[in-house]
Task: structure prediction
Amino acid sequence: MRLFQTLAAVAVAGALFGCSSEEETVALPKVGAKLEETSVSGLSAGAYMAGQFHIAHSDIVNGAGLIAGGPYGCGQSEFTKTMSGPGVSFINMSKAINGCMKNNLRLAGVPNVSRLAKTARDLSYNDAIAPLQNLKTHKIYLYSAQADTTVVNDIVSAARDFYEEIQIPSDHITFLYNQSGAHAFITDTAGSPCGASGTPYINACEYDQAGAVLKHIRGPLEPASAVNTERFLFIDQRPFTSGIENHSMAKSGAAYVPERCATGDACQVHVVFHGCGQSDTENFGKVVRTTGYAEWAEANNLVVLFPRATVSAANPAACWDWWGYTGPDYLTRKAPQIRTVRRMLNHLAADPN
Result:
């Protein structure tokens, strides 16, 4: 019950502090990005979405970083397969909170990584997601903080077990367990003191998590460099939600586009999914500007895309959908949010000429 109250409080805070107000937006540019070399990462609900997007589109995504996230499909209940409607979403949410965040359902076998792996195999067999065999060469970064009482260590451990169950080699998985920080993205110096809980869900723990994620997935990189603040773009997401219902996407998202990428150099894309409570104007701006991804992007011809969810009746904390509030296809390529982000990537990959 306390967590439901927290979600409601976050929704109220968003309404008071600008969740509905949008930055002045521009169109997402076409830069001819290499679509097949995309990578993803996220915090909490964003970690779950990073995992879902990776598995849905492993033909173009070659790795994922999950900070305080659990295994693919963990929030799905058996009712999802036989029923539809908002009642199923509520049942899934209860399972998600108790079994995929707090680990209170372990005696009932939740999460069951063997069953979740079977779900993924079935979806792959039915072409609802990309072939799982794509994943065998991919890299996974997992991080669980010692002071994280929102998504506990054992849930992140289950994510590691899931990836091994679907045949990702253990030496392709970096799992940092019981580490510094709380339920937050970890940085060198930006954010709240290390171990502090609550917004902006960014902890200064003398650790460059953005660099660690990117280097694990992509291999050696040029050292991070100073950003050009003019290359932070607040983008209009509405063209990418056209014809998609019940998407719970905000009017605006963001991107960091190095000038070299905008003027013809070959570039790749990394997608960052924010966590619950990070979608309001103030905290979303901190995710975009202070998590460290832009510094690595500037030095390595990397576009960073920051898509943005918003509040709705079924989603009071502007979380990404990892329990089915957008509909029964939320784990697949048909999912409203996954379709929207894929459209953004297709646009970035388009020929600018």
User: Anything to note?
Assistant: The first helix runs from residue 2 to 16.
